[in-house]
Amino acid sequence: MSETPIAKPHVLVIGAGHAGGALVGQLRQFGFAGRITLVGDEPHTPYHRPPLSKAWLKGETTTEKLALKPGSFYEEQHIGLRLGERVQAIEPDAHRVRFDDGTTLDYDWLVLATGARARQLPIPGVGHSNVLSLRNLADAERLRNALKVDRKVVIIGGGYIGLECAATARALGAEVTVVEHAPRLLARVASASIATFLQSEHEAQGVQFRLNTGIDAIEGEHAATAVRLSDGTRLPCDLVILGVGAEPAAELALAAGLACDDGVTVDADCRSSHPDIFAIGDMAKRPIPIYGRPIRLESVPGAGEQARRVAAVLCGREPSAPEVPWFWSDQYDLKLQIVGLIDTDATSVVRGDPASRSFAVFHVKDTRVVCVEAINSPPAFMAGKKLAASGKPVTPSELADSSADLKTIAA
Amino acid sequence: MRKWQCTTCGDIYDEAIGDPDSGIAPGTRFEDIPDDWMCPTCGSTKDSFEPYTE
């Protein structure tokens, strides 16, 4: 974009994470000629967060390489950046926000993209400086400084963040114990077959697990020195990582009177209860057609899809068809790709042999693929994405038959 | 030889290296990759990639 944009309309985006960063780029790509301002409370331009628990933490990639776009992009595209700044309040009827320093900024459309923050546990000792969560680069820097060879690390929570950190901590030579209160890992987000497979992979790498176990307290006077479990065991530690989920950072929206329910309630276009205010990313609770109910996704692909949707709406373009939610994770040399949400009413079939470390679990409900979890198996993920979107009728037995061609089944 | 970046996960497709695990030989130009190829890390579609300069 070479011409200076006109002042109106002005799109103001609060939150410079993946959703906000994707939105401002997409608006220009769709030819939006008005003014764009992106506000973020971190000092960085938008960056890729998933590597923070993996490649970045291991030192395999640099902070510069995490950037969503090169620094020059924002100037070239006439996108105003207000980094390291925080909006204190929204005045929806005046179409204005107020910053911490008392200054105000008017907008025509406001997009909230302030994400989610790490959940804390209501137990003694969580405030110690060596009890860390991981959401952003500052968290990751603290974690990287603390993760060293032979350090004893207790990870509270056997979800994706916990397991990714466990894999990285092992790669860096730390001793790792993961404590999970549910009877198995990834209880909310993956099937039992995948959880069992990943647990045995982690155990082979030396990670210890305490499942079905709560936390009574984090001990230590000035720093965490041990974690006391609900069964009375005391695990000595040099570092505690909390990976117990995230909650939407929706305070601004709530205070502005927008409808909220575990996130900002939005429609299919990501529009909130105020017609000129949208919400995207981890903080948005949006209806997903194939599930027939509103869901708050904590997912980079979800953030990207919502950003494209809002950009299309604001530019008067026909939006793309809604995507079936999808996710990915990598631990050691295992790439996990998931499409769809786990449905406990579905029938699950395994395609391929888990011992080969390349297989997939298909979940079928009433002849429709509702979810696929693929380990080191891009073709299964690709077929699953197609099938989940098309709803083409399938039988569990044809999916389980490794000799049947997946491309043909999904075509 | 050029590089391309996945806008979803940040993964780099380096034409010099290709993506042998998915049957894409070293030296394969991005344009010559089949349309149903996906990002080997996150599973994004080919159209999620954009040119990357270091």
UniProtKB/TrEMBL annotation, chain A:
SUPFAM superfamilies: FAD/NAD(P)-binding domain, FAD/NAD-linked reductases, dimerisation (C-terminal) domain. GO terms for molecular function: oxidoreductase activity, acting on NAD(P)H. InterPro entries: FAD-oxidoreductase/Apoptosis, FAD/NAD-bd_sf, FAD/NAD-binding_dom, FAD/NAD-linked_Rdtase_dimer_sf, Reductase_C. Residues 10-294 form the FAD/NAD(P)-binding domain. It comes from the Bacteria. Residues 326-409 form the Reductase C-terminal domain. Keywords: FAD, Flavoprotein, Oxidoreductase. The keyword Transit peptide does not apply. GO terms for cellular component: cytoplasm. It holds the Pfam family Reductase_C. PANTHER family: APOPTOSIS-INDUCING FACTOR 1, RIESKE DOMAIN-CONTAINING PROTEIN-RELATED. This is FAD-binding protein. It comes from Denitromonas halophila.
Automatic annotation (TrEMBL), chain B:
GO terms for biological process: alkane catabolic process. Keywords: Electron transport, Iron, Metal-binding, Transport. Pfam families: Rubredoxin. Residues 1-52 form the Rubredoxin-like domain. Pathway: Hydrocarbon metabolism; alkane degradation. Fe cation binds at C6, C9, C39, C42. CDD domains: rubredoxin. Binds 1 Fe(3+) ion per subunit. Belongs to the rubredoxin family. This is Rubredoxin. The lineage of its organism: Bacteria, Pseudomonadati, Pseudomonadota, Betaproteobacteria, Rhodocyclales.
